[in-house]
Amino acid sequence: MITREEIEDREITFLAPYAVKSKFTKGRAHSEDEHPYRSVFQRDKDRILFSASFRRLQYKAQVFSNFEGDYYRTRLTHTLEVSHIARSIARSLRLNEDLSEAIALAHDLGHGPFGHIGEKIINECMEAHGGFEHNRQSLRVVEKLEDIYSPGKGLNLTAETKQGLQKHTYRDSDSKVPISHATLEAQLVDIADEIAYDSHDIDDGVRAGLFHEEDLHSLTVWKEIVGRIEDKSYLVNSYQRMRLFTRFLINDQVTDLLDESERRLKRSAIRVLSDITTGKEPIISFSQSMIDKKKELKAFLYKNFYRNTQVMNIVDLAESCIKKLFKYYCKTPETMPVYFYQKVKESKDLHRIVCDYIAGMTDRYAYEKHKNLPI
Ligand code: MG
User: Fold this and answer.
1) Is pTM, for the whole model, over 0.85?
2) CA of 193 to the centre of ligand 1 (A)
3) What is the pLDDT of residues 84-96, one digit of tens each?
4) How many domains does the chain have?
5) 158 forms bridges with which residues in the sheet?
6) Which domain does 335 fall in, by range?
7) What separation in Å is there between the alpha carbon of 326 and the centre of ligand 1?
8) What is the largest CA-CA distance in the chain?
């Protein structure tokens, strides 16, 4: 049997000098005995994976709701894609794979029902009460709401995993800490997230008929990849070509990211972990040429996918659902499950607790609940 100490020693020998090592973790908020054969980051990822919030991701929308079709990514399958892309990057750069995986598995735990549309509506409901943002909620889930160990202690994750979740907020919200100061394990998860959704959204969009293969022909990434598919004499129909395109698209982005990150590591002054906190630019990054191609891809997705009327159809449903639930539970908190009602009585922070309850709901649970409200 391999002991935890042996796993820790292996990390010290094998990982890059600037990788996070489990032996030197900053630890947990509430001290615990070490596990005999799992490192701290292995335990973190297990805690996340076995949590109820993680299981609920399977019925939370990525873009499409679960009831719109079985093919499309859900928040859970998106999370799994992110964690696997993150692991490949971490392993290749000799970074801590377990830590990156833990951050990836937890990165979307704070998402409410109906994806980003749902997030916007919950934020509107919470406007006068501190707002709502899914990254901050992810942290709240692991620090407070998932208290299977003891009340109020959350999953008691390591400081490094929690810090990774905070850093995830930088790119699209209000964290004041620059991404370049995040551990490389956290930086790469942020990009793995983007690689996953930029790629799978093209696949899901075509499958849903929101746009067609021909619409992609003007994109630089399409021209480059299809050229290679044809060079290799793949005998493909349109469906197979799309599958190959998605596969190549992920691979190209990861390869570019590894090459550019390695270039940046070489020219930077980063030699040990503590050097990262003084870095001026993010180390984990695409090349300028890939950044340009992705800009084009994102603009395409924004116009043809995220703003598509079929996708936007869910806005009305999400809005009436969430607003009704929010109003109802604020008026009658005693009708929430005992766990949440108890919190209302203890904390007096009614709106935040109602927000926690609703943000934890899956799309279908929110829909069913709102349908059966006695108002
Ligand atoms: Mg994500």
Assistant:
1) yes
2) 5
3) 999 999 999 999 9
4) 2
5) 28
6) 314-371
7) 25
8) 67
